Amino acid sequence: MKAFPFTYNTPKEYWNYFQPTNWLEFVLGEISPLYSVSTAKAKVIAIHSESADSKTIVLRTNRHWKGFQAGQHVPVTVEIAGRRVTRYYSLSSAPSAKNPTITVKRQKGGLVSNFINDRLQVGDVIELGAASGEFTIDPSSVPDKLLLIAGGSGITPIHSILKTLAESNYKGQAKLLYFSRFKEDIIFFQSFAELEASNPWLEVKHVLTDVPAPGYESGFLTTELMNKFVPDLKERLVYLCGPAPLQTSAKEFLKDNRVISELFLLPNQIQTNYQSNGPVEVVLLQSHKTVLLKGEKSILEELEEQGIFPPSGCRMGICHTCTCRKASGSVTNIKDETMSDSGEGNIQLCLSRVDEKLELDL
User: Fold this and answer.
1) Is 206 helix (H, G, I), strand (E, B) or coil?
2) Which of 155, 223, 251, 350 is the most buried (most CB within 10 A)?
3) Over 50: is that where the pLDDT of 104 sits?
4) Minimal CA–CA distance to 143: which of 166, 176, 171, 177?
């Protein structure tokens, strides 16, 4: 039987646990992990290796899954060492697919990405939130010329978009410029080869940034590469998804274009070690706890180091799952080094570090 959940719960959470809906949820979960009163859950029915360090997870969802638009991402919750952990991943299949897929690239030090690549198995059940995101496309109003630029795992929503265009019998012209570190690092290599072969409107160019290989372009985004691959660049709508350096470089070439972009900051792209003047008192109002944080990392990281696990998702400032009300005190935003005022307001725990005594609605 499942353990009673007396681990970092607020009084309100204890009370909610005894409500009829929660007991029904418990009973249904004992009958089948996929059963739920209101939660979207999915059973892993297949796992495919896509590259040296990424896997595609094929899912069979329950009736609470509401679907998605091509290009959107979804919160995925798994249980690791008895703790529920949530991260956001792009859907990599077309929305029409009977079994949706997510494709997860291993990240150095990534708790969930490594768990999914190493330990998730066929038959396991994961929890899904509602799909969201504006990096989408409407097949009924796509322009005649598209350019899609991706780097690394930024290819996953673009794969979904191109699969959707193929299903809609797109009649225009689309070009994909995809940057990978080396040949074995290319995600969806076979899928893109098949898409290109069966859809005359699509042209795919792989560029290797770290290790050259025969038959592939190598290097980074340059004027020469852009002029050669897309001489009609100014005529194209551009979809751009990938790490910050690629996006910064690409946008220099795209000043005259309409660009739809999605930026993923990896944990190692956000500075999290700072000099501190000493511990700062942080009062957690809901759980009636007071802790001392050093202000050397994000508030989220420092709370977790003390065994306190607030809701969190992408840990990159995208999903806003860790947004929490600050009743008083000041924090600094890690991304732009701006300091908040000392009054009440909402902060993202993954992007904030403590400056002075805080009161948080946790």
Assistant:
1) strand
2) 155
3) yes
4) 171
Torsional sign, CA 94, 95, 100, 101:
positive
- Please name which of 220, 72, 218, 77 lies closest in space to residue 156, comparing C-alpha atoms: 72
If we measure between CA atoms, which residue out of 176, 153, 150 comes closest to residue 165? Answer: 176
What are the tens digits of pLDDT across the range 109-128?
888 999 999 999 999 999 99
DSSP symbols for 348-361: EGGGEEE-S-EEE-
DSSP state of 139: G
CA distances from 21 to 16, 36, 41 (A): 9, 10, 17
CB neighbours of residue 269 within 10 Å: 13
Query: What's the full length of the chain, in residues?
Result: 362
* Rounded to 5°, angle at Cα 57 from 51 and 61: 165
Torsion angle defined by CA atoms of residues 315, 317, 319 and 324, in that order, rounded to the nearest 10 degrees:
90
The pLDDT, as a whole number, for residue 193 is 97
Alpha-carbon distance 260 to 106, whole Å? Answer: 25
Q: Are 77 and 85 in contact (CB under 8 A)?
A: yes
For every residue of 304-345, DSSP letters joined together read: HHTT-----SSSSSSS-TTEEEEEE--EEETTT-PBP-SSSE
Q: Which CA distances in Å does 250 have to 8, 135, 205?
A: 44, 17, 16
Q: Which residue has the higher pLDDT, 133 or 316?
A: 133
Residue 59, judged by CB atoms within 10 A of its CB (0-12, 13-18, 19+), counts as buried
